[in-house]
Amino acid sequence: MTLLPYPREVSGLRRIDKKIVLIGDPAVGKTSLVRRFVQNTFDDKYIASIGVKVSKKTMEFKICGTDVQLDMMIFDVLGQHDFHRLRRMYVDGANGAMLVCDLSRLDTIESIESFWYPEMEKIVGKIPMIILGNKCDLADEFSDGASLLKAVSGILSLPTQLCSAKTGVGVEDAFMRIGREVLESHFQKEAPVAQMVTIENLHMAADAVISHYCERQDNRDAAIETCAIVFKEAGFNIRQPTKESLIRAIDLLFEKEKNEIGEERALANRAERMRYLDGL
Regarding the domain delimited by 8-169, which CATH topology (the fold level of the hierarchy) does it fall under? Predict the structure, then answer.
């Protein structure tokens, strides 16, 4: 059950879908946390999740200067330690995880370290995760549960958030936090890909500029040598090209041609070469 995220542009926002899973022992309040966050309601009746419950919540962020609308698909996964194969099906493809424990039950905190974190790492590897200490209305930040949670978070190097599905304290903050971490991870992975595309496009633009110049010269070998000198003088590095250095190379070719064919024709050639940079 893998959710495939894809970016879309909606009214100036970049829209991204992400899958978030809530896991933890039975009766720690996973379903109540989702209900509180999505519907802003609470019901103290315990209903065991059979398999998985899926909810959706739309949130807005500003990440790396970009306005983002996050469609968060929240998977509330069964808490029984058995059913590994079933849980794997629901967890697979998760972009972020919230490991939920009950601050008033120390065993649920211990199982985050001994069972749930290793289980998640085995299925999805390293993804953004946060430990939620639910029911802080029953056990505050000075309780034994909070102290144990702090120790576990230190061992696993994971952030924590105390919250209460009953009162609503810390719930929205927790989901906002995991949402931001997931989006930041998304943009970090996307940046190298975008950089590779930009470099390839700059290479293609540089080749087009060189071809444009050489095609208008009688001696192509001499023209290629001229381009090599000009591009070096402009600081165009083939491994790390920049748009600015390519523009400098085009300007230098213009200066050279101006003395050979006149300023009017040289300007026309420069304008044609600058069009190769459109979109870069």
Answer: Rossmann fold (3.40.50)
